[in-house]
Amino acid sequence: MSTFHPTEKLVHLIEWKRKEMIDSAHQTGLSSLQTLTKSIELDHLLNLHQQASTKNSDLKLEISV
């Protein structure tokens, strides 16, 4: 059984959601409710990743000071 670092798992989820959104856009169109919902979900995951990255950067700065 493989284990993922939380950030790695988040990146995997982002990649999966991006693929779902692209597939949805091809099937239902760019402005369909399904595609827009996937886009919002992807935005949420990207925001979480950004927050995690910022916290890690801040932590590294605190440790090095």
Task: Describe the structure concisely.
With 65 residues, this protein is mostly helical.
Structural commentary:
There is one protein chain. The chain has one domain: MYOD Basic-Helix-Loop-Helix Domain, subunit B (Irregular). Helix content is 85%, strand content 0%. The protein is built from two helices and no strands. The mean pLDDT is 86.
Quick tags:
MYOD Basic-Helix-Loop-Helix Domain, subunit B, 2 helices, mainly alpha, HLH_DNA-bd_sf, 85% helix, Spo0E-like_sf, Spo0E-like, elongated, Spo0E family sporulation regulatory protein-aspartic acid phosphatase, 65 residues
Please describe the topology of this protein.
Layout: H1 6-28, H2 33-64
Which percent range describes the beta-strand content? Answer: under 5%
H/E topology pattern: HH
Q: Sheet bearing the most strands, described?
A: none
Mean pLDDT over the full residue set: 86
Shape: elongated
Helix count, DSSP H or I runs of 4 or more residues: 2
Q: How is the CATH topology named? A: MYOD Basic-Helix-Loop-Helix Domain, subunit B
Q: How much helix is in the residues?
A: over 70%
CATH class: Few Secondary Structures
SS class: mainly alpha
Compute the CA-based radius of gyration. Answer: 16 Å
Organism: Cytobacillus spartinae
Protein name: Spo0E family sporulation regulatory protein-aspartic acid phosphatase
InterPro entries: HLH_DNA-bd_sf, Spo0E-like, Spo0E-like_sf
